[in-house]
């Protein structure tokens, strides 16, 4: 896949897009929002932030663990399926947004980043693979990919979306918002039922 | 054989591989930045160990979180164990999951399906 270094649209406000599309998300529901460079150090910092929140919360431990796991997979998915931003002539970085909201009946995770057409096609294919699949079908897909997949340089094993689908009974939704002829905001919405 | 002890961090598990005292355990969170860098020395250690294993080897896995890249790395480790079992080693894997944690139980069941080794899945109370 060709690398695309994006020099414009650097300051897209993902939160605005999410709140326009999902107006039920209010400030008081948001337990974590991050927008910026995405890398492993950020994952660790966000885990620490979530741990601090959960330590004070009454959420069942299983919901906490699902939220941790899914947030990590969402961020790693951003790292795999995103355009790269040029820092200077030699270095680039990846950027995205994570928002976690706590509702009475669910935790919802929204991960957003900008993709190009080729990346959108890959994501649509991922969506097609898991859409409507039963728990048992997802289990078979996971096992097959576990055997077949190799760990890529980006750290993935091709299991991320299948894993999220399994952990949420397939409660994940792919949203695309075009922002120019070449670029699209991709938002993955994941619902963890309490 | 040299013992491996790795202290846990926010993204990597505690590891204790001690042939002399017959202790083999991995526990905690597993989502290291580079799973190959973390797990390859562990896989290499077991490969060496199974050239001359103890009479009985029980490997304990008590994981809180496991990202998908780690689950793939663990499969590679289990394949080394499977090969040792085929060659006559007396090995058992104990996979622990917290009560209610179906996700961790499920992945244990998948490993048990995929690899031909004695594999026990044990529920522990989260009290």
Brief rundown of the structure:
With 194 residues, chain A is of the alpha+beta class. Chain A has six helices and eight strands.
SSE layout and pairing:
The complex is a heterodimer of chains A (194) and B (127).
Chain A: E1 5-6, H1 14-21, E2 30-37, H2 40-56, H3 61-80, E3 84-86, E4 92-93, E5 95-102, E6 106-115, H4 117-130, H5 135-148, H6 160-167, E7 172-178, E8 184-193
Parallel strand pairs in A: 1-3
Antiparallel strand pairs in A: 2-5, 3-4, 5-6, 6-8, 7-8
Chain B: E1 4-6, E2 14-18, E3 23-30, H1 35-49, E4 57-66, H2 68-86, E5 91-98, H3 102-114, E6 119-124
Parallel strand pairs in B: 3-4, 4-5, 5-6
Antiparallel strand pairs in B: 1-2, 2-3
Helix pairs in contact in B: 1-2
Cα-atom radius of gyration of chain B: 14 Å
CATH topology tier name of the domain at 12-116 and 171-193 in chain A = Heat Shock Protein 90
**Which percent range fits the helix content of chain A?**
40-55%
Order of helices and strands of chain B: EEEHEHEHE
Proportion of beta-strand residues of chain A: 25-35%
Main sheet: strands, sense, barrel of chain B: 6 strands, mixed
Q: Outline the low-pLDDT stretches of chain B.
A: none
What CATH calls the topology of chain B is Transcription Regulator spoIIAA
Cα Rg of chain A: 16 Å
| Overall mean confidence score, pLDDT of chain A | 88
Q: What are the secondary-structure elements of chain A, in order, as H or E? A: EHEHHEEEEHHHEE
Overall number of strands of chain B: 6
Poorly predicted regions of chain A: none
Give the CA-based shape of chain A.
Answer: globular
* Structural class by sheet pairing and helices of chain A: alpha+beta
| Helix content range of chain B | 25-40%
Question: Got a strand count of chain A?
Answer: 8
Shape of chain B: globular
Number of domains of chain B: 1
Q: Largest interface: which pair?
A: A-B, 31 and 27 residues
């Amino acid at each position: 896949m060709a690398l695309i270094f994006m020099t414009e649209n650097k300051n897209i406000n993902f939160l605005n897009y999410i709140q326009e599309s999902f107006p039920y998300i209010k400030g008081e529901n948001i337990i974590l929002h991050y927008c910026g460079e995405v890398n492993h150090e950020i994952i660790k910092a966000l885990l620490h932030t979530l741990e601090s929140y959960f330590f004070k919360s009454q959420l069942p431990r299983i919901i906490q663990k699902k939220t941790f796991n899914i947030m990590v997979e969402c961020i790693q998915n951003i790292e795999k399926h995103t355009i790269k931003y040029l820092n200077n002539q030699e270095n680039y970085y990846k950027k995205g947004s994570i928002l976690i909201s706590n509702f009475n009946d669910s935790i919802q995770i929204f991960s957003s980043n900008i993709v190009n057409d080729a990346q959108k096609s890959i994501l649509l294919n991922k969506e097609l693979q898991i859409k409507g699949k039963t728990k048992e079908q997802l289990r078979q897909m996971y096992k097959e990919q576990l055997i077949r997949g190799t760990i890529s340089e980006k750290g993935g094993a091709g299991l991320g979306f299948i894993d999220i689908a399994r952990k949420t009974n397939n409660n994940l939704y792919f949203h695309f918002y075009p922002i120019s002829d070449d670029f699209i905001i991709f938002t993955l919405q994941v619902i963890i039922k309490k | 054989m040299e013992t491996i002890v790795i202290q846990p961090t926010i993204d990597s598990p505690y590891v204790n591989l001690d042939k002399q005292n017959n202790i083999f355990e991995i526990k905690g969170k597993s989502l290291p930045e580079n799973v190959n860098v973390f797990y390859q020395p562990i896989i290499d250690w077991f490969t060496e160990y199974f050239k001359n294993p103890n009479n009985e080897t029980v490997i304990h896995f008590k994981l809180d979180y496991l990202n998908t890249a780690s689950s793939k790395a663990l499969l590679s480790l289990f394949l080394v164990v499977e090969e040792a079992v085929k060659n006559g080693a007396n090995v058992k894997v104990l996979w622990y999951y917290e009560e209610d944690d179906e996700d961790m139980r499920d992945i244990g069941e998948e490993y048990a399906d995929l690899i031909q080794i004695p594999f026990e899945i044990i529920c522990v109370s989260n009290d």
